[in-house]
Amino acid sequence: MTAFPEGTILGYPRIGRRRELKKAVEAFWAGRIDEEELERTTRELRASTRERLAELGLGRKDSAIPESFSYYDQVLDAAVTVGAIPTRFEDLRGADGTVGLPAYFTIARGEGDRAPLEMTKWFDSNYHYLVPEIGPETVFSLSSDRLVRQVSEAAEAGLVTRPVIVGPVTLLALAKASDDAPQGFDPLSRLDDLLPVYVELLARLRAEGAEWVQLDEPALVSESLPASVAQLSDAAARALDVLGRAPERPAILVAAPYADLGEVFPVLAAAPIEAIAVDLVRGGVPAPAAGLEGKTLVGGVVDGHNIWRGDLAHAFDRLEALRALGAAVSASTSTSLLHVPHDVTDESRLDERLVSWLAFADQKVQQVGVLARGLSVGRASIAAELDASSAALADRLAAPGVRDGAVRDRALSTADFSRVGYEERETAQEALGLPVLPLTTIGSFPQTGDIRRARARFTRGEIPAEDYDDFLRREVASVVSLQEDLGLDVLVHGEPERNDMVQYFAENLDGFAVTEHGWVQSYGSRATRPSILWGDVSRPAPITVGWSAYAQSLTSKHLKGMLTGPVTILAWSFVRDDQPLGETANQVALALRDEIADLEAAGIAIIQVDEPALRELLPLKKADQPAYLRWSVDSFRLATGGAAAGTQVHTHLCYSEFGVVIDAIRALDADVTSIEAARSRMEVVADIAEVGFDHGIGPGVYDIHSPRVPTVEEVESLLRRAVEEIPTRQLWVNPDCGLKTRGYEETTASLRNIVEATRRVREDV
Ligand code: GLN
Ligand code: ZN
Fold first, then answer.
1. How far is the CA of 653 from the centre of ligand 1 (A)?
2. Would you place residue 654 in the very low, low, confident or very high pLDDT band (cuts 50, 70, 90)?
3. pLDDT digit string (tens) for 382-398?
4. Is the CB of residue 181 below 6 angstroms from any atom belonging to ligand 1?
5. pLDDT at 660 > cutoff 80
6. Which is the closest atom of ligand 1 to the Cα of 444?
7. Handedness of CA 173, 176, 181, 183 (dihedral sign)
8. Which pairing describes strands 648-652 and 672-675: parallel, antiparallel, or unpaired?
9. What per-residue confidence (pLDDT) applies to 43?
10. What is the pLDDT of residue 115?
11. CB of 740 shorter than 6 A to ligand 1
12. Given CA atoms 141, 75, 257, 303 in this order, what sign does their dihedral have?
């Protein structure tokens, strides 16, 4: 067995420095390039990634370079590799039983009435994976040799790389029971049937020259999955026992990042594998455990979750602490670098001083290289780099703007976190004169090609600000008049000025920076460009007031002001790590609080503060959840706590698993909460009725994720279902989410049907 390399990374961004993967894959979907061309483009992308990693210091022949490419998603890759595809896609297999690229994309994206796999968040990151569907009928068989071919592709270039695949326990633990499975079926019960396919895969990888393989098993650290940690570690022990004893295999590295390994560590230490990756950013140095002799501990000390350069000296300290456990130690990132952009040196417009505090993927690879050198040659050999990192950190902590006296001096009292009682507000809000079952939308209207083009031209300086402003005003005016024509009750301005619900605020608040190329994969071919929250947050000037006031001036109906909440702003940005998140959230909240006061002063009586990410940031460990829920709810309450009793505060959450965070949602104390419900055919209203919720609630009646126009009868039946379960005085009528990804044709038709359905239901209540 060859030794594990001194330094490595657990994975690298797959999208390409200029989003080459997105462009190629979308061109293939649109039929502009064929499969061969797609293969060629992505082969080049993989080749340049390997070369880049070698240039940055990872060894060419020691398995340091991870083979972590994916066309769409690594969980789908694993599912397809082992043949775990739902029955509805079975006919897409080739004659030899393999699942080719077109079939792979169809499973990811659906086709006609064949629904795609569901998508959900990958642990506590902003990456979304596809949820495998597994039942008693699933036949596991090696159905794709893509990973094997990538290993040989690397070998042809003279490299020995380390294939990475989602491990068997995580694959099953993240899966849901297939449609064909009986009630209560647990995919994890198929573990023993699945393992032989992994054994076969390991043999193929070994035959192709792989000396190490990485099995990603992050499910082992999650307390948010249906399986308990005890069940998961039990499954891991069984799985690794089988895989470890496989006759022909590469050496095995098991990586279970995103949280502390806790009681799983001794299980991994005892397993017949060769290396264990430990997330030392989210977790601590484990206690000594039996079975570590001869193993390698891969210390994840370079943070894969964020873009800070961090404290390299402290990182090295932790590697030394890890060494005390008696195993060999290597340096690594805490997670795959999938969660960070490619290269900070691409950012020509960022402030230089800010850049000196940052490390994107490429810089993190270099940091690993430094730490690896320190491990092999000794701390003294990297003293200069450690000092430089400490100096950058000290510079950051002392820099103007990172700590802003005016922000920090704003004293908070407990009263700032509460409004008057709901009953009193309800009475005060009667003055709004809203009808029963008020009709509204979630905020955005279609972001048409015209809007995107105008924004791009304005950003490039091709049209003057006044012209762009005029264009947006015309857009707002047309959105307002459309809503009046349709007969909605509470109007919105449509958000045409926003590129993105977080970046827009980041661009208008102090303490944030936005990048030019800082794309991070969100799912499939989609990437987002998170802003960097680096300093104390404050609001130099009102942000949304001009737009809302203008829209309000065009109508006698109520115009709903539209803000993004503090938790969502944090969740979708790279956030400073030098103070508790709750403190940062409160700074954002105070800026929003001022914005709300200004909106009120401008005559806006209904204000929505979106918090679609509230659920997303929920920590994986149960013990961490109460503290999170406390600060997140508090920040929302601080943002909205200054609103007058007569001001109606709305919030919007993008999901329907209401039950999980019901206490938090209740504690937000918004007057009206809109949620997704159409996709689950209003199942959520039964949950709501069951747990009891007495504020306003708008369960979505229109699934905006699909271009389909719901009929009047469909919407009517959804509404009648809601009316049966929930007192009418609480109910609102709205779509599931914003309309920005939809076109005008289906939006108008859908809203018209919603209005008609509401009219019919109103007659009977
Ligand atoms: N107000 C936002 C919109 O309508 C909300 C989007 C969201 O919840 N993600 O686009
Ligand atoms: Zn939403």
1. 9
2. confident
3. 999 999 999 999 999 99
4. no
5. no
6. 4
7. positive
8. parallel
9. 98
10. 86
11. yes
12. positive
Average pLDDT over residues 445-469: 96
- Is position 705 annotated as part of the catalytic site? yes
Residue 301's identity, in one-letter code, is V
Task: Give the ligand whose atoms come closest to the C-alpha of residue 496.
Answer: 1
Q: How far is the CA of 503 from the centre of ligand 2 (A)?
A: 16
Indicate the SS3 state at residue 25.
helix
- Please give the average per-residue pLDDT across 164-188, as a whole number: 97
621: helix, strand or coil? coil
CB 171 within 8 A of CB 84: yes
Give all strands (DSSP E) within 385-436, no chain letters.
none
Task: With cut-offs at 50, 70 and 90, classify the pLDDT of residue 403.
Answer: very high
Residues 204 and 142: beta-carbon distance below 8 Å? yes
> Among 126, 441, 442, 703, which is best to mutate for testing ligand 1, by the most ligand atoms less than 8 A from CB?
442
340 to 65, 381, 517, 544, 614: CA distances (angstroms): 17, 28, 11, 30, 21
Distance 658 CA to ligand 2 centre (A): 13
In which element (H, E) is residue 16 found?
none
Average pLDDT score over residue span 301-329 = 97
pLDDT at 341 over 90: yes
544-566 pLDDT, tens digit per residue, is 999 999 999 999 999 999 999 99
Q: Tell which atom from ligand 1 comes closest to the C-alpha of 564.
A: 1
- Where does the pLDDT of residue 225 fall: very low under 50, low under 70, confident under 90, or very high at 90 and above? very high
654 CB less than 6 Å from ligand 1?
Answer: yes
| Residue 679: Cβ within 10 Å count | 17
Q: How far is the CA of 666 from the centre of ligand 1 (A)?
A: 20
d(CA 501, CA 495): 9
Q: How far is the CA of 595 from the centre of ligand 1 (A)?
A: 18
Residue closest via CA to ligand 1's atom 3 equals 738
**Ligand 2 center to 685 CA (angstroms):** 17
d(CA 90, CA 693): 43
Length of the chain in terms of residues written: 765
Q: Give the strand pairing for 275-279 and 251-255.
A: parallel
ipTM above 0.90, yes or no: yes
Conformation bin of residue 681: beta by default, left when phi > 0, alpha when psi is -120 to 50: left
Q: Which two tokens stand for residue 379?
A: 């701390």
Of 257, 221, 214, nearest to 236 (Cα)? 221
Q: What are the CA-CA distances from residue 139 to residues 99, 173, 174, 243, 757 (Å)?
A: 13, 17, 18, 19, 45
For residue 200, the number of C-alpha atoms closer than 13 Å in the C-beta half-sphere is 14
**Relative to the CA of 740, which ligand 1 atom is closest?**
10
How are beta strands 531-538 and 328-333 bridged, if at all? Answer: unpaired
* DSSP assignment of 115-148: ----EEE-TTSS-EEE--EE-TT--------HHH
Confidence of residue 706 (pLDDT cuts 50, 70, 90): confident
Best mutation site among 610, 614, 654, 675 for ligand 1 pocket (most ligand atoms within 8 Å of CB): 610
Residue 165 DSSP one-character state: E
- Is residue 114's pLDDT more than 90? no
Ligand 1 atom with the shortest distance to the CA of 608: 1
Does ligand 1 lie within 6 Å of residue 738's CB atom?
yes
User: For ligand 1, what atom is nearest to the CA of residue 443?
Assistant: 4
Listed residue (730, 736, 706, 705) closest to 718, CA to CA:
736
For ligand 1, atom 6, name the residue with the nearest CA.
738
Backbone angles phi, psi at 607, to 5 degrees: -135, 125
Which single residue is written with the structure tokens 């929003």? 592
Percent of the chain with pLDDT over 90: 93
Q: Which residues pair with 277 in a beta bridge?
A: 255, 298
- What DSSP state is assigned to residue 382? G
* Contact (Cβ atoms closer than 8 angstroms) between residue 759 and residue 716: no
Mutational pocket test of ligand 1: of 440, 444, 559, 655, the residue with most ligand atoms within 8 Å of the beta carbon = 444
Q: Is residue 650 within 6 Å of ligand 1 at its C-beta?
A: no
Task: Kindly indicate the confidence band of residue 512, based on its pLDDT and cuts at 50, 70 and 90.
Answer: very high
Which one-letter DSSP state was computed for residue 741? T
